[in-house]
Amino acid sequence: MIDVSKKFNTLRYARAEGFLFARPEIVQRVIDNNVPKGDVIQVARAAGILAAKKTAELMVFCHPIPLDWVEVTVEPQNDRIRVLAEIRTVWKTGVEMEALTAVSAALLNIYDMLKPLDDDLHLGDIRLVEKSGGWSDYREPEAQNIRCGVLVISDSTFAGQRTDSSGKALVTFLQQQGFRVPVYDVLPDDRGKIESKLTELADSDKLDMIFTAGGSGLGPKDITPEATLAVIDKEIPGIAEALRSYGKDRTPYAMLSRQVCGKRKNTLIINLPGSEKGAMQSIQSLFPGLTHALLMIRGEGH
């Protein structure tokens, strides 16, 4: 299975359809509820709903997910019966397979109920009609046009007593997303130097995003949030809230983090934890969606 633990929940929707082809007189018997095995429409509908909930038991790589809503519609149409399945959930991965499984199971049950009456029954045109939710739904600027900076805030790393891993991991992650990272630097826990560097990168270098790693906890020298507040012109509390919410699902210590996020002119400045694990979990929680802020800052709106 694919690891989806890094993803966040979004509203997911899928709609699928398929057809069973039969002689018109057989379809009419379905409409009239005149089939020896019973009510074809209601049995097919129930079978489709049940199958949707059991998709993970049938598909090897499907995740077992909670389904918030399943609807299966059975529509007799002259020489065919159309089955439509719609599914909605709020989760980390899509429900396309659940919709297709629901349609297939409903059609197979219709076939089973009608096969004594028609030797020419056949199924076909099973397809995904629509899906929504996840990364593909979010409008983002082109990654290769986004320039980022990574600042590691640590006295010990600045003094050469500790090897940086969090900042380098952040650089690698950003480059893997297609962003350019022309700036990587290590600074001491010095408020004046942090403020000066953030101002320089935003005003002179005109970076699109700056990520700081470290100095956002409760230690006596942790002053990155204070330095950030001093240089930004608009705070964006929702980003910091998302970081802590995502982190809280993974460690109880996330509630102790004091990250501040905001913008200075056209540059986003985002505080991340100093540990490699914390920094990586935090930055992963922000995509997709984070770079959409750049569109808004530039006046392009949603």
Characterise the protein shown here.
This protein has helices spanning 24-31, 40-53, 55-58, 96-114, 155-158, 166-176, 191-203, 224-231, 237-248, 276-284, 292-297; strands at residues 10-21, 69-77, 80-91, 122-132, 147-153, 180-187, 209-213, 234-235, 261-264, 267-272. By secondary structure, it is α/β, with parallel strands linked by helices. It has a six-stranded mixed sheet, with helices on both faces. The chain folds into two domains: 10-135, Molybdopterin cofactor biosynthesis C (MoaC) domain (Alpha-Beta Plaits); 143-297, MoaB/Mog-like domain (Molybdenum Cofactor Biosythetic Enzyme, Chain A), CATH 3.40.980.
Short description:
The chain is of the alpha/beta class and 302 residues long.
Low-confidence stretches: none
Radius of gyration: 27 Å
CATH homology superfamily of the largest domain: MoaB/Mog-like domain
Q: Which architecture name of the largest domain does CATH use?
A: 3-Layer(aba) Sandwich
CATH top level class name of the largest domain: Alpha Beta
Domains (count): 2
* Terminal CA distance: 34 Å
Enter the CATH topology name of the largest domain.
Molybdenum Cofactor Biosythetic Enzyme, Chain A
Silhouette:
elongated
The total count of strands amounts to 10
